[in-house]
Write a structure and sequence with these properties.
By secondary structure, the protein is of the alpha+beta class. The chain has a single domain, classed as Cytochrome p450. It is 50% helix and 10% strand. It is built from 18 helices and 14 strands. The strands form 5 sheets. The protein has a 5-stranded mixed sheet with strand order 1-2-8-5-3. A 3-stranded antiparallel sheet has the order 4-13-10. A hairpin with an 8-residue loop joins strand 11 and strand 12. Helix 4 packs across helix 12 and helix 14 packs across helix 16. The protein is globular, with a radius of gyration of 21 Å. The N and C termini lie far apart (50 Å).
Amino acid sequence: MSAYPYNLFAPEAIQNPYPVYARMRREAPVVFDPNFHAWLLTRHEDVSHILLHAATNTVPPPLDLPPGMPEHLVQMQAEIAESMKYWLALTDPPEHTRLRRFMNKAFKPALVHAMRPRIQEICDHLIDNMRGKDEIELIGDLAFPLPAMVIADMLGFPKEDRLKLAAWADHMVDYFADYTYSQVHLIENMHRTIVEMKRAVMDLVRLRRQEPREDLISHMLTPDEAGLNINEEAMVSISILLLFAGHETSMNMIGNGVLALLHNPDQYDLLKREPGILESAVKEILRYDSPVQYTARNLSETTTIGDVTLEAGSRLFLMLGAANRDPEVFTDPDRLDLGRAVNPHLALGQGKHFCLGAPLAQLEGEIAFSTFCRRVHDVEKVTKTESWRPSPNLRGLKTLRLRYSRITD
């Protein structure tokens, strides 16, 4: 990476990007980043304006490889991009509107709320399995399997395929972290992952055509109110997105959130004493250490942001994590405040691309944090430093080893 004063790929920025964001907001709130080949926006006002009002298009799936890459890798990259063609975050109206309308029914708050008993059952089972261990590895023991099992349940995936989710997710995170698309093994791993996921989804689609159930695959096979279907290609693409994004954000929210509570014992104690603040606590955890640090857009017309005029076609990276620490919007933004009354965080986006699974992520967070706080006692970290995954965007821990005194019912 080039010598650049706000290098978000630097090891210290992967560990903690927020001091870098603070400098960017002060010194260069709209700046061209040569590593991302994009303009980075870090102020809440600017990010929110682009998400809500500006004339933009989503950034298409990756295609370009460095010159001289072998033809078989070029073909793999094209197939990877094709598999993302119907991801909601990568589509624009009218296609985005059609796909989102089709999927909205399955993620209505009332339907998600009805999943509470099942999510609670999964969470209690995972914590029961921690009994007798010398230490907990929070990511592997709770943060990953809870949302992975929930989204697999929703899609109707058999147990044997659920065991592959961790490897699939790791390959996808590693692939998206390499913006040069120059590491052969990452492309090959991602391609193999996409092939395996497509095969698993198609096997399930064939089964559900014969034996429909109350799951998302069966729902996608059912025409909407207007009698319209989505095609199989879109169904497979959306299912891959849900398998990945459906657990990745919640996994990182749970891991980042427990770490934040351990670093802020006054707030940890507050949550134990006052479980009624759970709703605002989850929102604050999402703001404080956002699982997704940025989203991308292309300008479709010349736009002035602050004192910088950007031409149509400019690529923007909207730094959600930076906007969520903006002191112009949040009082004492670097403090975890679970009772924060005013919290217009952007962790789940805004506008027409607001996260489809936001009600589910909120519910998973409420259940995970309340159950962990209630049942697992005298928790402390085993190591002083944390090991973060290498992506500057998908912010999450590799592991979080914890000691505890006891687990109660």
